[in-house]
Design goal:
single chain, 6 helices, mainly alpha
Length: about 150
Amino acid sequence: MKKLVFLFFIVFSVGFSEVPFKDITDEHWAYKSVENLLNKGILKQDSEIFQGKNEVTRYEFAYYLSKVINKSDSEKASRDDLEILENLVYEFSKELNKMGFDSDLYLSMVKSHDEKIKELNSKLEENRKLIDELQRKIRELEKNKKTF
């Protein structure tokens, strides 16, 4: 499941170049996702029309998902990427449910991961303080060692 979440974020993260299709404007809600897929080489421009209202077959979905999996190992998600993914999961929840994706489970996992991240950040800060204190004590011991 983690891999699937990561893959969706890769697919739907934000890009910064112009989409060359005539039938999708920069005001369209999916513009940035299409732009990013083009930039990452997931989608190819094989015509001047995107045809965004056409249905995707399971074969096409598997093909593009496979391309995302192949690219996913070298990329990491930012908080913005995760927010975009969350919005897209909500937007496409009916379609994702048809494919067996449980959006409620996904959202609960995101919440759980957020809580774990906060907990880990708290523990990290505690460890930093302990390390600073230990380093201070080591310096003090080394200083006292020189006086003996």
